[in-house]
Amino acid sequence: MNENAILDEALLALKNNTDIESGKTNAINKNGNELHYDFALTLKQRDAIQHYHVLIKQRPSLVQLALLIDNDKEDIVNDTTTRNDGAKTLLVADYVDTKASEFLKNHQCHFIDSVGNAYLNFGSVFVYITGNKAPKKPAESKPSRAFQSTGLKLIFNLLCHPDDILNRSYRDLSEICGVSLGSIGWIINDLKAAGYLSLTENDQRKWADRNGLIQRWVVAYAEKLRPKLLLGYYKSLQRDWYKTVDPKSFSASWGGEVAADHLTHYLKSEFSTIYTDESLGKLVLLNGLKEVPEKSTANVEVLQKFWHFDNPKTPDLVPPLLVYADLIASGDSRNMETANIIYREFLDDHH
What InterPro entries does the database record attribute to this sequence (predicted)? Predict the structure, then answer.
């Protein structure tokens, strides 16, 4: 379903359920560091009127929603915050499931979807509808190899390796990244086709949309690669246990909240993420960690390292891109503002 069709169906469902009227204006485009908005519109019920800048998504995952909130935080996290023109952000989707609906409502992010699920809160209007069933999902096109597990490992190395390896030979990239030689060409070509990579007149590779690739990588990492890397959840009875741990003695690096605290001194860690390429026995035994079955009862997670280079500036920490991805993947509102700081200070080409 194209963007116009999604918007039209969502507005029709909203009108049928609530009698809220809409007025759609032309598509708008915000460039530079800001989000791209697909449309501007106004919603009205009696004397209550709200202007919106519209973002259209098919079926956004929780990670995509966390990125939306992070990137547009000042506009949608606080219900009283508006832009200079008084507009708020409105997410319009083909479908928003119950968990995502709750997440959006908790972050005061207004949304509507094509089957009538919605959260709106302006003037005398309050709408919260959730639980309507999803429409039939259209057949998916063949997924890009670049955003499957192997491609995500290669992209991470291209973005984060301390040496500039973007124009190394396929054979070199295979050895550096631990990715099969036969996969390299397919992944590079997918990145070119998607507009993330381009070639100079001398056939040198260069980034065409590095920031866009970072956002796409963060979403795909959380959905495709990160779950495969999980080695276990653990509970430490000592709240600040990590402060006395030298991760290098376990061939490990801090990610997530601990790394974010080191980088920004803004976030106090309540949940520890550690990446290691050693067996877990030594790490677990020497630090008194008790394995637990679910993240909800844990305060430590251990994941398998998937890169083979050192991080010279902060050797105890994973690269900033992975810290940012861990914070976004957590879905924890405490982490969103810190993730934004890390993005601006360490990742954003426009900064």
Answer: AbiEi_2
**One domain, residues 240 and 332:** yes
Interacting residues of 324 by C-beta distance below 8 A, sequence separation 6+:
214, 218, 339, 342, 343, 346, 347
CB 20 within 8 A of CB 337: no
Query: Per the domain annotation, does 279 fall within a domain?
Result: yes
Task: Tell me how far apart the alpha carbons of residues 280 and 287 are, in angstroms, rounded to a whole number.
Answer: 11
Residue 110: strand, helix, or coil? strand
Lowest model confidence (mean pLDDT) among 119-133, 173-187, 282-296, 307-321: 282-296
**How many CB atoms within 10 Å of residue 311?**
17
Read off the pLDDT of each residue in 62-81 and give the average, rounded to a whole number: 66
171 and 242 share one domain: no
Q: Assess contact for 112 and 10: CB atoms under 8 A.
A: yes
> Does some domain include residue 140?
no
Q: What is the CATH number of the domain that holds 72?
A: 3.40.1350
* Total structural domains within the chain: 3
pLDDT tens for 87-108 read 899 999 999 999 999 999 999 9
Helix (H) or strand (E) holding 55: strand 48-57
Answer yes or no: do 117 and 159 share one domain: no
DSSP per position, 275-320: EESS-HHHHHHHTT-EEESSGGG-SEEEEE-------SSSTTB--H
How far is Cα 181 from Cα 179, in angstroms, rounded to an integer? 6
Q: Which H helix or E strand runs over 76?
A: helix 73-76
In angstroms, the CA 28 to CA 34 distance is 12
User: In terms of residue numbers, what domain contains 243?
Assistant: 221-347
Q: In whole angstroms, give the CA distance from residue 245 to residue 316.
A: 10
Q: Is residue 139 in a domain?
A: no
Query: Which of 208, 230, 251 corresponds to the end of one domain?
Result: 208
